[in-house]
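User: Teach me something about this protein's shape.
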Amino acid sequence: MWHNNEEEGEEEETFGQTSRASAASSTGVSTAIFEIRVEGRALGASDSSTFMNIQRSTLPMGKIIHEVVFDIPREHYEVYTHLTRLVLLKQELFYDYRTGPPHYAHLYQDTIRWIHDYPYERLKRGAELNDGPQMLEFCLRHFADCEIPWEEQTYSATDFIEMLQDLAGDYGVSLIKRPHGKRRRIKHHTPVLQQRALAACAWINFTSYFDRPYGGSLYAVLNGLPMYAAACYANLAASGDFLPTIVIRIANWLGTLKTRYPGVDIRTTPRLCELKHIWLAWDAYWERCIKRQIAECSKVHAARNVYGCDGCDIRAMHKNAFRACSGNCHPETKPHYCSRVCQEKH
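Assistant: First, the predicted structure itself:
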């Protein structure tokens, strides 16, 4: 499970708009309460687009995530070197964020099955024979450094990008000059494999950008190759209505440039303004998040006694997070508590 702790937000007034966020947390409980008002009225679910524009331009998010804990299934912990890296990488590249990945137990089991069925030497041989699924697995194993012999760590990012471009097929944007223009003929090629290869191309270019000496500079974004290539591949994936997490991650990072470099709107720059699909996907993602946040806040406000601890300021987003009072209180107003200490105060 994922667990995040959040610090208390501050109240800020900007041109008649007020945002107030208060949050607290206890062990295993992630909490937040938001009240958003525009010109004196509370925002409802139908105001999600207005809320999105306000939040992007003037309001703080209210939540500050400063800790993330991932519970690795005990039976899979350290079964293979860097296994969790490979699992999380597949989660980021293989599954559309709108439907989500399968259960983590399934992800671990499937990843372990691949490692068991295809040891490195067999996997390498399959990649050399242009077997599509094995080529993709070969690249991801190297990206995660999972079960890779030290003497085999001589490949460059260009080697993997060429392999992934061939997997991406006609969708690929060949940004690397190849000797003699040769391309592989892929066996066992499928549309799903093609989509995942596009996501992997976006990922390797995105991470390569930060490995360079000038990584993080605005000049490198506007004029360099890696970040532009990452955005191109993410845009191609989005054009096919495939939105793995890496697509949103790239769009979101590019969006932060507006804050770090005031006056710069990356969406209007000469090269990146043409990537319509990634920006449409990012807008849809934001609107989806805002609608979910409004729905959660409405749910909490409708039953404050269930989602709020009666003994302190802690608020929960799940009704089973707290224990109900064991007394004869009316069910509709029965207080709930986050701990025995708070219950004893009642």
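Now, about its shape. DSSP finds 14 helices and eight strands in the chain. The beta strands are 2-6, 12-14, 17-22, 33-38, 41-42, 65-70, 323-324, 336-337. If you'd like, I can walk through any region in more detail.
User: That's plenty for now, thanks!
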